[in-house]
Design goal:
Strand content: 15-25%
Oligomer: single chain
Radius of gyration: 19 Å
Distance between the termini: 58 Å
Shape: globular
Largest sheet: 8 strands, mixed
Number of helices: 8
Strand order of the largest sheet: 3-2-1-4-5-8-6-7
Structural class: alpha/beta
Number of strands: 8
CATH topology: Rossmann fold
Order of helices and strands: HHHEHEHEEHEHHEEE
CATH architecture: 3-Layer(aba) Sandwich
Number of domains: 1
């Protein structure tokens, strides 16, 4: 940009340097919908990714299951060495590839976890807002495939809207939510696959250990994968 576009304060010159290096970022197709209709929801979603990024800090090879447009994935990239992001819907993967920033490279793969596991190995796996879309009859199969590529010392994080929250959910959410759970049921399901499961509650952007029936979102942090599942 020419000098006429510069700001009046010298410290903000860096804004234009970053724009020249990275271009001007744009939302993914899913993030764009929430930012356009309900900006606070965008913030809540990113807060979930921020929690994952802090929990997985230092991990080398991380798998995201159900990345959608991968808009929030960059928060996880900020703290781990590499992310492989997958989704079963090609339209989301294509959108993410079109917005790929060479300074934030990730592997983007169309993959249906119900069809089979990933062939690579990972030291962490996470899935946010995915399990509630899986039919209960396919839940065990989905989870087994999701964690089968996890190394023995690896950790997993799964997040979903609570069953109690559904009375307040939008029609759009209810349309796809076929498997929401209460925190005790969520723990029970995760303990079928892991020896250690830690359940967190979430309201808006706040993650806490408060009364689970008042939580709108629940997160399971899991470790010590069971090998006999």
């Amino acid at each position: 940009m020419g000098d006429q576009a510069r700001t009046k304060e010298e410290q903000y010159e860096e804004l234009f340097q970053v724009q020249a290096e990275h271009g001007t970022a744009r939302f993914g197709i899913m993030a764009n919908e929430s930012w356009s209709r309900d900006p606070r929801r965008t913030f809540f979603t990113l807060a979930r990714y921020k929690f994952v990024s802090k929990m997985l800090e230092g991990r080398k090879r991380v798998l995201e299951v159900g990345c959608a447009d991968a808009f929030g994935t960059r928060l996880v990239q900020q703290t781990v060495a590499h992310v492989t992001a997958t989704d079963f819907d090609p339209v989301f993967i294509q959108d993410a590839k079109e917005r790929m920033n060479e300074h934030w490279p990730m592997d983007l793969i169309v993959h249906d976890m119900l069809a089979g596991p990933m062939l690579q190995s990972f030291d962490a796996v996470y899935a946010l807002d995915v399990l509630e879309h899986i039919e209960p009859s396919q839940e065990k199969h989905f989870l087994r495939n999701s964690v089968s590529s996890l190394e023995p010392h690896g950790v997993a994080i799964f997040g979903m809207p609570s069953l109690e929250s559904q009375r307040y959910a939008s029609w759009q959410s209810k349309k796809g939510h076929v498997n929401c759970k209460s925190a005790p049921d969520f723990r029970r399901v995760m303990e079928e696959h892991f020896h250690s499961v830690f359940i967190f509650s979430m309201n808006d952007e706040i993650v806490h250990t408060g009364y689970h029936k008042m939580a709108h979102y629940i997160i399971a942090v899991c470790a010590q994968l069971k090998t006999d599942q």
